[in-house]
Amino acid sequence: MLNFHIITIFPEMFDSYLKESILKRAIKSRKISVKFYNPRDWAGQSNNLELTKPIDDTPFGGGPGMVLKAEPFLKAIQKAVGRKTKYKIYYFSPRGKKFNTKMAKDISQENRREKLKDIILVSGRYEGIDSRVEEIYKGERISVGEFVLTGGELPAMILIDSISRQIDGILGNKFSLEEDRISAGKFYTKPAELKWKGKKYKIPEVLLSGNHKKIDEWKAKNA
User: Fold this and answer.
1) Number of domains in the chain
2) Are residues 16 and 69 in the same domain?
């Protein structure tokens, strides 16, 4: 089983995505697990009374925006790491290494060989997390695209989805992996002739031919 540990101040954002469809079944069948650690839980206590303390503060050196404090995130990561020996930490940044399917495959293969059991995904917000967190807990910066998002929660979901689908048994049929087969980029299902607003729309005849060689050629041409 591959365990995802999510450091985020907004864990509720993951609810709808993880509680539906393939990822829901993957969690239920214990192919993966997803745990959350909210840095707000370590925002500070005094005299045994829990206080509501801000999770962020103004940046040293001036500038707009707010920076997430180091200590709550360090404690959340420390809790996620525990006594684990086989884990990786990923931070999200548009300046990070571009995430792709090859990386997802490599991670799943490490898990298959039992060289990697736990992945810790650190989701920042605002101007970012105090850089001392990365200095203390070394990890890899990951980018999911050449754009800026409000926070790291969406990138974390992307990694969970992309990596999980590479794990044996999660998609049910190993041939369901689009990246491992010829995909035309065009898809059709019944009926073979669709009537819409007085017009008829038929699927390409080759898909009805039963000639798999010609069908593969059509798919390759339209990929």
Assistant:
1) 2
2) yes
Catalytic residue among 11, 25, 94, 106: 94
Verify that 155 and 60 share a domain, yes or no: yes
- The reply to whether 94 belongs to the active site is yes
Same domain assignment for residues 187 and 92: no
pLDDT beneath 50: ranges in the chain: 46-51
Name the residue among 29, 28, 10, 11 with its Cα closest to residue 19.
Answer: 28
Place of tokens 């794990």: 167
Instruction: Look up tokens 């059709």; give the residue.
Output: 188
CATH code, domain carrying 88: 3.40.1280.10
Residue 57 domain boundaries: 2-174
Catalytic residue among 180, 205, 216, 217: 180
Report the pLDDT value the prediction gives residue 52, as an integer from 0 to 100. Answer: 57
From the centroid of its chain, how far is CA 116? 16
pLDDT at position 155 = 97
> Do 112 and 195 sit in the same domain of this protein?
no
Instruction: Give this prediction's pTM.
Output: 0.84
For residue range 135-160, what is the model confidence (pLDDT) as tens digits? Answer: 999 999 999 998 889 999 999 999 99
Q: What single string gives the DSSP state of each residue in 129-141?
A: B-THHHHHS--EE
Q: How far apart are CA 218 and CA 211, in angstroms?
A: 11
